[in-house]
Structures are given as structure tokens and as C-alpha cells.
Please model this.
Amino acid sequence: MQGAIVQVNISPGGLPKRAIAEGWVTPLGIAGDLHAHPHIHGGPRKAILIIASEVVDALAARGYPLFYGAMGENLTTRGIDIRQIRIGDQIRAGGALLEITQPRGPCSALDVYGESLKLEVYDHKVKQRDFSSPRWGMSGFYARVVTPGPVGVGDAVSLVSKLA
Model:
């Protein structure tokens, strides 16, 4: 499974995150990216948030005022089948190696795009880490950094190690 990074995003804290051409992935996230609520977001197990551009595009087509970076993702990807991603899978993104740690639980900050958005991307099954949910992967995945490195627009994103 291989795709590409279509956008790298950072912010001074909060939503939305804005595009940068390239960044450096550290054990705590992309250098220069800050969190408005560091007790909730960030840290070594939530260093990077990955969201598929296909999800953003589909939600925007349904009327949500979304764009890449709007949902707070650090890496917007294209071409990765999110339905096949599992907790523990390792993904190479540019020069960094990441390990998927959990699905993202959407917070009230997303309400600015429509209060129903959270229901579109997340449900009880996702919360229970049940990949049979039709919403699996739509809210994005958090990842820890196994190997720091550079990431940039156009870099490859590939599944390199499947847990099961």
C-alpha cells in the first residue's frame, strides 16, 4: 500500500493547521507545531495526526467547509486505504517512520465546521477500536514517531509493517 503526502500542516495551537512545504518530524511531532491543549493532544503517542485527503474531499463534497489542515492533521495523505490501517501498523512518511497508536477521537473544536461532523467520522465502534465500523479511519489516526526525519509535499507514504 503506497500513497503520497499532499500537505504537511502545523499551527501555533488549535485549528486549523496551515500548510508548509516541508517539515521535520521529531519524537513529539513536526517541529514548530504546537497544541492548544497539550494535556489532550500531542505527546509521544499522539505525535502525528494523519488524515486521508479522500476523507476531507468527501466531507467537503457533502457540504462541510473543510480543507486540508482544517481537521488538525499534520499529514494529509492520498492513496492509502484507511480501511486497512490497524493499530500497531508502521508507516513510512517521507524520511520518518511512524507507528499507528489509535484512532483520533474528534473534539468539540471541529464543531466550527458543523456539529454533525463528529458523527460523520467517528462512532462507538471506532472508539472501541473496532475496524469493522464504516467510519474506521475517517477521523484520522494518531502515530508515534519510531524514526524522526523529514517530510514534504509529494513524499511517499507507505505501509512498511503490518501488525496482523
Remarks:
- The mean pLDDT is 95.
- Residues 53-61 form the longest helix (9 residues).
